[in-house]
Amino acid sequence: ADTRKGVVLTARVHPGEVGSSWMMQGMLDFLTGASLEAKILRDNFIFKLVPMLNPDGVIVGNHRSSLAGADLNRHWREPTRAAHPTIHAAKEMARTLAAEREVVLFCDLHGHSKKSNAFMYGALDGLGGSLP
């Protein structure tokens, strides 16, 4: 049986946060690369990556919203297939993965207008960190 744990990485829910695409590109390049570290990660984890959660908003040049004018990052709790299709699909994919194996990390990459360098916000199980 495959006992690898799951990791979900997503990016670009806010079209104006271009830096998240560069971070995701770096992750993709590293994880698919030939280094020993990348091989160890691939051998021990199943990675599910969504490089761009808001392609419609990116294409039309929006800064925070989708083509329909929704801030998709505010609809993770109850996304609808019609109004928030990429969030709905990403959440279903994460739920499916969590039903198959333990998911040890869900990381949604962003850029920030005022913070510098790298930082993290997070939620702990029981405090909003589960997939409802």
Question: What descriptors fit this protein?
Answer:
alpha/beta, single chain, 4 helices, 132 residues, three-stranded parallel sheet
Secondary structure blueprint with pairings:
Layout: E1 5-11, H1 18-31, H2 36-44, E2 45-50, H3 55-59, H4 85-100, E3 103-109
Parallel strand pairs: 1-2, 1-3
Protein described:
- This protein is an alpha/beta fold and 132 residues long.
- It has helices spanning 18-31, 36-44, 55-59, 85-100; strands spanning 5-11, 45-50, 103-109.
- It has a three-stranded parallel sheet with strand order 2-1-3, with helices on both faces.
- The longest helix is centred in the C-terminal third of the chain and has 16 residues, at 85-100.
- The protein is globular, with a radius of gyration of 15 Å.
Number of helices: 4
Sheet of most strands: 3 strands, parallel
Strand content: 15-25%
Q: Any low-confidence stretches, pLDDT <50, length ≥5? A: none
Q: Shape, please?
A: globular
Share of helical residues: 25-40%
Number of strand elements = 3
The SSE string, one letter per element, is EHHEHHE
End-to-end Cα distance, whole Å, is 27 Å
What would you report as the Rg, rounded to the nearest angstrom? 15 Å
Average pLDDT, to the nearest integer? 90
- Give the strand line-up of the largest sheet: 2-1-3
